[in-house]
Amino acid sequence: MGVHRCRRCQADSVIYMRQHRLALCEPHFVEWVERMTLGFIKKHRMFEPEDRVLVAVSGGKDSLSLWSILLKLGYQADGLYIDLGIDAGCGYSKRSGEHVAKFALQVVPGAKLHLLDLAALYGKTVPEMAGRRKGGRRKLCSVCGLVKRHEMNRAARELGYSVIATGHNLDDEAAVLFGNVLHWEAEYLVRQSPVLPADDLGLVKRAKPLARFYERETAAYAIVGNIDYIVDECPFSLGATSLRLKEVLNSMEDRSAGTKLNFYFSFLRARDNSLFPGYERPDLNPCCKCGQATGASGLCAFCRLV
Amino acid sequence: MGVHRCRRCQADSVIYMRQHRLALCEPHFVEWVERMTLGFIKKHRMFEPEDRVLVAVSGGKDSLSLWSILLKLGYQADGLYIDLGIDAGCGYSKRSGEHVAKFALQVVPGAKLHLLDLAALYGKTVPEMAGRRKGGRRKLCSVCGLVKRHEMNRAARELGYSVIATGHNLDDEAAVLFGNVLHWEAEYLVRQSPVLPADDLGLVKRAKPLARFYERETAAYAIVGNIDYIVDECPFSLGATSLRLKEVLNSMEDRSAGTKLNFYFSFLRARDNSLFPGYERPDLNPCCKCGQATGASGLCAFCRLV
User: What's the mean pLDDT in B160-180?
Assistant: First the structure.
């Protein structure tokens, strides 16, 4: 192979993206990430400059990079940090929140950061909510996802944001797709998309502007940009199915560069070319307590939980 | 776990099927395989007792087991062996043919075995046909598949069989499905099925009665039944994509028994529940030389090859 040089300026200190056979020096890599993100936002009509975007930030590399990129691209992007109350002996949520707060102060001082503390609002942390459920800790990840989706949506509605942006990267999306394919869960498959539209029951539009980037690319972007993110994975995610699926995809990627990219993008193309028939969303009703859309009659899953 | 005992007769020498949590002694295993095959044939309306079935036999465990099972179940099943002319320094086709001939004479003496020798018919073996193509040996597997499909169909039509049965097992089908999913090849995905109907351009109905069995189950059936099959894989299959995909699926199966079964059957269910829209077959024409259906105008891919 020889030494890689930046395709733009021939510099010899580069970030090499094997799946694209593309080597770029740090400044050109940053420029590339931002330009590709802009293209992806436009292609999927995620949002316009006049939209108020709420970025769900966890303190990790993806969401902090996303917030930074959106602001650099000129979008109106504020942050939302949900304190899930995960301690697990390492003060995980507390440390995550500190990374977010520091980032907001130092890197994006013009933007707003909204803080939402589950324990203060509902008297319970996510592990406490999950602990009361059958399945206990094994269900924690699904409870956590449910809570985050509900609270992101509630916050966006109450604060007047038209779009929620999350930092999901290609590795995340490919793993979810792989999981959905292993069980052929039609409803999830048909709905998996880098952008989900708003509905008339108060679901706010959601977008994943980084879904075209490998995890190592978002990590490189964060490192190059001196973004001080929380490196640890959530302590509860160890052994989670999503990590196992990522391992399998990583081993396939190692053998054949571009596997994840092709898997995800060929899926999006097949979907756009009507591989699946028109998806009929099941009838939804407003939750009788919080008002958010639910397939259940009466209380939504979140309100039954808290 | 303790020692497994036969679920039927409590015998302690058993074949254990982890994905079904089912242990059966040898006689009950054989009975189980045959009963499940019958159920699968009926469920997918593969063929009826009055159909004349042509079993494509390679000399391997799957196809020889299939032939034996179909006869035991009372179907009219004859064999077709295609001598592909693969030598590869180990006389692969020659040895395979010997296994088939011996099996036909000793195990199913009432059935007919049709032999078809490519080199005698077309003056070329499969490696010779593939060698003339761009891509050479790497294309050999696809040329071999093309040739087998063409010749099986031609033989079935000329000899008056209404169905072609092949020995594909669950590992084969899951690997093909996995490959199709990795690239979201809509046309292949939509058509992947344990049974493919005949069409009015002379395509004979095809069925895969063993597609619900793991490879280790068809191997166990062959071993228990003293079927003397060729154990080696085709020497050209080493490094083939399908083997890599099988490895990945095997590693997932090791971690979670039933992965392959769930993957394949949830796909079939999703398809039956209209996950995919009505498939519009592209317009086909009869080949101007052999008369078999082709998407090309003029010569079909097989006739262009030979």
Answer: 97
A19 touches chain B (CB under 8 A): no
Q: Indicate the length of chain B as a whole number.
A: 306
CB-CB contact of A295 with A284 (8 Å)? yes
What's the burial of B238, exposed, middle or buried (CB within 10 Å: 0-12/13-18/19+)? Answer: exposed
pLDDT tens by residue, B268-281: 999 888 888 766 66
pLDDT higher than 80, residue B81: yes
Instruction: Using pLDDT thresholds of 50, 70 and 90, give the confidence band for residue A97.
Output: very high
Total-model pTM:
0.91
| Average pLDDT of the residues in A286-303 | 91
With residue A272 as reference, give the H or E element that holds it.
Answer: helix A259-272
User: Quick one: which H or E segment has residue B52?
Assistant: strand B52-56
DSSP 8-state code for residue B297 = S
> A190-201 as b/e, with b when 16 or more CB fall inside 10 Å?
bebbbbeeeeee
Confidence check: pLDDT of A186 > 90: no
Q: Is A255 in contact with B274 (Cβ distance < 8 A)?
A: no
Across the interface, do A277 and B273 touch by the CB < 8 Å criterion? no
Q: First-to-last CA distance in chain A?
A: 57
In chain B, % of residues over pLDDT 90: 79
Chain B residues touching A275 at Cβ < 8 A: 184, 186, 189-190, 276-277
pLDDT digits (tens, 9 = 90+) for B99-133: 999 999 999 998 999 999 999 999 999 999 988 55
Which pair of structure tokens corresponds to residue A114? Answer: 């909204």
Reduced to 3 states, what is the DSSP secondary structure of residue B187? Answer: helix
CB B60 within 8 Å of CB B66: no
d(CA B260, CA B246): 10
Comparing CB atoms, the residue among B183, B262, B273 nearest residue A182 is B262
Residues of chain A numbered 243-272 and touching chain B (CB < 8 Å): 244, 248, 251-252, 255, 259, 262-263, 266-267, 269-270
- Distances in Å between the alpha carbon of B69 and those of A69, B38, B62, B63, B263? 63, 9, 10, 10, 25
Provide the ipTM.
Answer: 0.87
Closest to B152 (Cα-Cα) out of B213, B190, B227, B208: B208
pLDDT at B180 > cutoff 60: yes
Cβ of B275 under 8 Å from any chain A Cβ? yes
Assign residue B113 a region (left: φ > 0; alpha: ψ between -120 and 50; beta: otherwise).
beta
Q: Is residue A176 scored above 90 in pLDDT?
A: yes
Interface touch B248/A244, C-beta < 8 Å: no
- All residues of chain A having their beta carbon less than 8 Å from the beta carbon of residue B181 are 181, 263
pLDDT, position A164:
98
Banded model confidence at residue A132, pLDDT cuts 50, 70, 90: low
Q: Report the alpha-carbon distance of residue B163 to residue B208 in Å, rounded.
A: 10
CA atoms within 13 A on the CB side of B182: 21
d(CA B81, CA B60): 11
A275 touches chain B (CB under 8 A): yes
